[in-house]
């Protein structure tokens, strides 16, 4: 298991390395650039040339790349030119990444907490009203674009009903102490309950919007998987032992039905970023999604590079976690790998 | 009084939008304490469904069960789900056909044995674990302590079936139902498992219902045999009587279709002609009539009743208008 984990972590390094090269080339090939974005259309040739030189963009691309790698290895990813000009990319990352992580985490928690029980119930009452209703709503969940749902939720629950704030991570009036950058966690750690609560309230609408797709997928996979498993011979064996229904449900049905669901959760968590960009835009939520959108608009190379590389790293890490947890719940994989 | 009295048991599957299908059509038989009774017949004759109905393991929806199945005087068919759960695993054990798919792949062998002990014998996890190792040892699994922490895929087919037998016998049930327990196993392993079952039921005085399509299994194990056809018992006799003088043409056909090593070279096998799909409903006559070499005109007009054999002495019941002559049957015995 340990050797496997180490091998996978090495793979992660290779993925990030190759991706950095591709990203670097790709970003440079986009039309426009930070100079035009910063100075505007009407800048003089001289000032453009000066800025180009200042940013090091006049050098050959491979020189730029190796300089970037050299600095990156010592933790310096450059200075933002567009998102928050003057701040270091690392600083922006540290501000924004926890926000998106917090949002994604809540979205996945909602998807799993609702999707798995509902999937189980729908399967057990197959063809009943609950089953039909949830199958249809999960279809809607996948089909409706996330930004549209986000907009709808904002309009109804924040603007019309006023139950939730319309934007941001925290009300301005609240004086919260920052510890980790995860606002809800900070509030709990410092026992500033009002700050924790306020941060949570800000998270709910975007998290619900963001959870629509993972919820639908988790629900459907759970339902299909439970339907498969309840007909398995070993469930009948469990019944023949006279075990109580809760034991059969937990130990014999759910434990097996969860195998494909775990994989799904991993993949969906990785895919959340795409939805996060749109949701964060709608709710003016200062996470990496919003920073990415802004970064592209202003061709902020350092910020884009760091954020995308980290997102890719997180994606690979999550899939590693999924594979490891898979080995934990499925003994067949555990022994096949030989790493006992 | 018999340990299990099955009377007129019928099981009808009724799916929405489909014609109801009668899988078991008035089956009656007894199992005495410690006795081994065979239910024999080809696929689809209702033998498995009979056992599942007795165990209360059929789906609740779309299935209609009628008749009676009394276990030690208690009517099993009218017990509540909870009462039945208390009985299953404790008074009634069951071993299934495919030992790989019948064990949960993600739960250790140990837990799959101990959970039934914890459920019915009020044992702690620790006591149950000691007991489980003993059980595994008793069914001939070597190094049982290590096996407890292993998972089904780490065991061979024969070992898995041994583990399932250990599970079924864990609470010392008075009745064990074995549904084709050797079908999925290698021939050499089959013999071992059968010998194990025979030993165990003898030592523990457990009654056994052996469900099989394999007459070899019946010959080696059963005290009494019920031959099923299309959901009804067509012949019942003691093992020796049945093999020596099969009276129902179906039984006769089953025995005749077994390939024999001592048959002359080049002799063709003699299968029963046709298939189950040729059957006529029991209500209009004998379901086997279209495939029966002995069929008379009455066979497709009058449903034969289950009656004592009029010709051959002994406790035999027969559902046939025109049974195979004992002489013909005896001839065959001589020929072999």
TrEMBL record, chain A:
Residues annotated as transmembrane: 9-27, 103-123, 135-153, 199-219, 257-278, 303-329
GO cellular component terms attached to this protein's record: plasma membrane
Pfam families in UniProt: BPD_transp_1 (PF00528), BPD_transp_1_N (PF19300)
Cross-referenced InterPro entries: BPD_transp_1_N, MetI-like, MetI-like_sf
Entry keyword set: Cell membrane, Membrane, Transmembrane, Transmembrane helix, Transport
Gene3D superfamilies: MetI-like
An annotated GO BP: transmembrane transport
Topological relation to the membrane, as annotated: Multi-pass membrane protein
Chain ranges of the ABC transmembrane type-1 domain: 97-326
Compartment annotation: Cell membrane
Recorded family membership: Belongs to the binding-protein-dependent transport system permease family.
Name of this protein: Peptide ABC transporter permease
Classification of source organism: Bacteria, Bacillati, Actinomycetota, Actinomycetes, Pseudonocardiales
TrEMBL record, chain B:
Keyword entries, A-Z: ATP-binding, Cell membrane, Membrane, Nucleotide-binding, Transport
Gene Ontology CC: one annotated term: plasma membrane
Domain ABC transporter, first and last residues per copy: 6-255
Pfam families hit by this protein: ABC_tran, oligo_HPY
Keyword NAD: no
Intracellular or extracellular location(s): Cell membrane
CDD domains documented for this protein: ABC_NikE_OppD_transporters (cd03257)
GO-annotated biological processes: peptide transport
GO MF: ATP binding; ATP hydrolysis activity
Key word Cell membrane present: yes
Membrane topology of the entry: Peripheral membrane protein
InterPro entries the UniProt entry points to: AAA+_ATPase, ABC_Ni/Peptide_Import, ABC_transporter-like_ATP-bd, ABC_transporter-like_CS, Oligopep_ABC_C, P-loop_NTPase
Record-stated family: Belongs to the ABC transporter superfamily.
Protein name, per record: Dipeptide/oligopeptide/nickel ABC transporter ATP-binding protein
């Amino acid at each position: 298991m340990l050797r496997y984990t180490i091998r996978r972590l090495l793979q992660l390094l290779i993925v990030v390395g190759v991706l950095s090269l591709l990203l670097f080339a790709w970003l440079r090939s986009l039309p426009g650039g930070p100079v035009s974005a910063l100075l505007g259309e009407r800048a003089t040739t001289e000032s453009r040339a000066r800025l180009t030189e200042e940013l090091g963009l006049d050098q050959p691309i491979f020189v730029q790349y190796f300089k970037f790698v050299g600095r990156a290895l010592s933790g310096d990813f450059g200075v933002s030119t567009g998102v928050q000009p003057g701040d270091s990319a690392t600083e922006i990352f540290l501000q924004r990444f926890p926000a998106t992580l917090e949002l994604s985490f809540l979205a996945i928690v909602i998807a799993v907490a609702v999707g798995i029980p509902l999937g189980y119930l729908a399967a057990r009452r197959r063809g009943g009203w609950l089953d039909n209703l949830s199958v249809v709503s999960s279809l809607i969940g996948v089909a409706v674009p996330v930004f549209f749902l986000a907009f709808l939720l904002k309009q109804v629950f924040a603007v019309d009903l006023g139950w939730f704030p319309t934007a941001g991570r925290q009300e301005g009036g609240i004086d919260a102490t920052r510890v980790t950058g995860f606002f809800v966690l900070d509030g709990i750690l410092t026992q500033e309950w009002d700050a924790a609560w306020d941060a949570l309230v800000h998270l709910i609408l975007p998290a619900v919007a963001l959870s629509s797709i993972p919820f639908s997928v988790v629900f459907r996979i759970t339902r299909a998987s439970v339907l498969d498993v309840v007909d398995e011979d070993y469930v009948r064996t469990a019944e023949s032992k006279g075990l109580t229904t809760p034991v059969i449900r937990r130990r014999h049905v759910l434990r097996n039905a969860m195998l494909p669901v775990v994989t799904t959760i991993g993949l969906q968590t990785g895919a959340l970023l795409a939805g996060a960009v749109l949701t964060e835009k709608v709710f003016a939520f200062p996470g990496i999604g919003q920073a990415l959108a802004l970064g592209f608009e202003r061709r902020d190379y350092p910020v884009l590079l760091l954020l995308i590389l980290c997102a890719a790293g997180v994606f690979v890490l999550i899939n590693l976690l999924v594979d490891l947890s898979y080995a934990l719940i499925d003994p067949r994989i555990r022994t096949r790998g030989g790493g006992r | 009084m018999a340990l299990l009295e099955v009377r007129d048991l019928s099981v009808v599957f009724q799916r929405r939008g489909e014609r109801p299908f009668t899988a078991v059509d008035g089956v009656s038989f007894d199992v005495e304490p410690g006795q081994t009774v065979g239910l024999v017949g080809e696929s689809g004759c209702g033998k498995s469904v009979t056992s599942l109905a007795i165990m209360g393991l059929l789906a609740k929806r779309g299935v209609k069960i009628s008749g009676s199945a009394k276990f030690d005087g208690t009517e099993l068919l009218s017990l509540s789900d909870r009462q039945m759960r208390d009985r299953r695993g404790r008074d009634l054990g069951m071993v299934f056909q495919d030992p790989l798919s019948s064990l949960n792949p993600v739960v250790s062998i140990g837990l799959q044995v101990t959970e039934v002990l914890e459920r019915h014998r009020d044992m702690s996890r620790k006591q149950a674990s000691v007991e489980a190792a003993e059980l595994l040892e008793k069914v001939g699994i070597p190094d049982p302590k290590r096996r407890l922490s292993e998972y089904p895929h780490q065991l061979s087919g024969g070992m898995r079936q041994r583990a399932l037998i250990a599970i079924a016998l864990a609470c010392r049930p008075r009745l064990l139902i074995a549904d084709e327990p050797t079908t999925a196993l290698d021939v050499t392993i089959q013999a071992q498992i059968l010998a194990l079952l025979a030993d165990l039921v003898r030592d523990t005085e457990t009654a056994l219902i052996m469900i099989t399509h394999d007459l070899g299994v019946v010959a080696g194990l059963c005290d009494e045999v019920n031959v099923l056809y299309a959901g009804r018992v067509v012949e019942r006799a003691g093992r020796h009587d049945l093999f020596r003088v099969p009276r129902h043409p179906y039984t006769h056909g089953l025995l005749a279709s077994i390939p024999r090593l001592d048959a002359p070279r080049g002799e063709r096998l003699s299968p029963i002609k046709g298939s189950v799909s040729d059957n006529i409903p029991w209500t209009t006559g004998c379901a086997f009539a279209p495939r029966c070499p002995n069929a008379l005109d009455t066979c497709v007009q009058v449903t034969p009743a289950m009656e004592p054999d009029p010709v051959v002495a002994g406790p035999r019941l027969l559902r046939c208008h025109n049974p195979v002559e004992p002489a013909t049957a005896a001839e065959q015995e001589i020929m072999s």
